[in-house]
Amino acid sequence: MTTKLFKAKFITLEGMDGAGKSTHIPNIISLLQTRGFEVVSTREPGGTAIGERLRELLLHEPMHAETETLLMFAARREHIANVIAPALARGAYVLSDRFTDATYAYQCGAKGVDAAKIQQLEHWVQVGLQPDLTILFDVPVEVSIQRLSNAREPDKFERENAEFFTKIRNAYLQRAKENPARFRIIDANRPLELVKQSVEEIISTL
Ligand code: TYD
């Protein structure tokens, strides 16, 4: 008899502001829990006490794009050490609302930070750790902007213009193209129920 080796999975959700990814988190958690998995749900920037304090600065204080990149990775180092690695080690699934693809999309794609510098930080901080699955919620830029205009008080990133969001979207799609085994792209410009179905199909393959 063969025993199926269980490997905990690290799942990340990505997309532009307003793409609607966060709406699906409770459903993903419950789908995985129903199958008997422990799920640790977390977010970036944030996920730890220090990370949440850095989040406050990152989302509200103007700063140099490289400072922003370094702080994102400082928060990420803390997040991996205290939340992500211990959870995966004990066999829990980790679901993170954003991770390093967001740094490539926002700080590199939209703000022009050198990708090679981000790669160095990624190697340093992640030591090979990569998500097993990344779900990219993709919407046209106009839709993202429209949804944000109906939302609560915008943060620093959400106040940016269409050109900024176009760069983010293109950078995400490029990341997906470069990492086809890990990425699943969902067309999030559809009624919520259909997006939910797509999410469920992807989670059922895990
Ligand atoms: P977001 O995840 O959209 O949370 P909320 O829905 O509560 O606004 O906000 C996080 C913001 O941080 C988002 O605009 C993207 C940005 N961000 C980066 O610029 N780089 C990163 O590496 C990460 C993780 C996030």
What does this structure look like?
With 206 residues, the protein is α/β, with parallel strands linked by helices. The protein has a single domain (10-203), classed as 3-Layer(aba) Sandwich (Rossmann fold). 53% of the residues lie in helices and 13% in strands. It is built from eight helices and five strands, in the order E-H-E-H-H-E-H-H-E-H-H-E-H. The protein has a five-stranded parallel β-sheet, sandwiched between helices. Helix 2 runs antiparallel to helix 3. The longest helix has 25 residues, at 65-89. The chain is globular. It starts with 9 loop residues before the first strand and ends with a helix. 34% of the residues are buried. The model has no long low-confidence stretch (mean pLDDT 94). It binds thymidine-5'-diphosphate. Thymidine-5'-diphosphate is lined by residues 17, 22, 44-45, 59, 72, 97-98, 102-103, 106-107, 155, 157.
